[in-house]
Inverse folding.
């Protein structure tokens, strides 16, 4: 056997390097990690609060879907204006500083035909028909024979308009 030719028996096991920690070695990385955790917690908290504030919207959409399934029932049609008023009353109101001598502003419950129309238009991102509040008033106060004469397409249009308003209305912050 030739002594210059390496043999497998001559191989020796190499020593392993010292273990390395996965934890950051400098304080800057710890600070960045703390900042990221704080930002994640803040974003999560804000989304949770927004989800809580939109509970009225989710419940109204659920009720609207129930009413739409019974669109041939007059009671379902008559409940549409009431549902929109309840949504308007449930909208979170931004905190305002008022003087004690100034009268309290009236909410959406006291709004009439044209004021109610302006309120609906002001809070919706999509354009609404100019007679939307009149149609809602007709649903609430017209005789049963008038509502029974409404074609199905017009009923579905009213449900669609109400759903659009509930889904897309914005609340001033």
């Amino acid at each position: 056997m030739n002594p210059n030719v390496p043999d497998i028996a001559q191989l020796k096991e190499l020593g392993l390097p010292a273990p390395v920690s996965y934890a950051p070695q400098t304080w800057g990385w710890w600070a960045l990690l703390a900042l990221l955790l704080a930002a994640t917690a803040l974003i999560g908290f804000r989304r949770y609060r927004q989800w809580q504030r939109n509970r009225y919207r989710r419940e109204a959409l659920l009720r609207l879907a129930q009413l739409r399934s019974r669109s041939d029932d007059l009671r379902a049609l008559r409940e549409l204006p009431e549902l929109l008023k309840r949504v308007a009353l449930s909208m979170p109101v931004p905190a305002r500083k008022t003087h004690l001598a100034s009268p309290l502003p009236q909410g959406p419950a006291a709004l009439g035909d044209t004021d109610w129309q302006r309120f609906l238009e002001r809070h919706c991102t999509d354009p609404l028909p100019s007679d939307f509040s009149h149609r809602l008033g007709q649903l609430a106060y017209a005789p049963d024979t008038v509502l029974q004469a409404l074609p199905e397409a017009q009923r579905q249009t009213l449900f669609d308009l109400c759903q659009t308003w509930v889904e897309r209305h914005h609340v001033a912050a």
Notes: The mean pLDDT is 84. The CA atoms of residues 27 and 33 lie 10 Å apart.
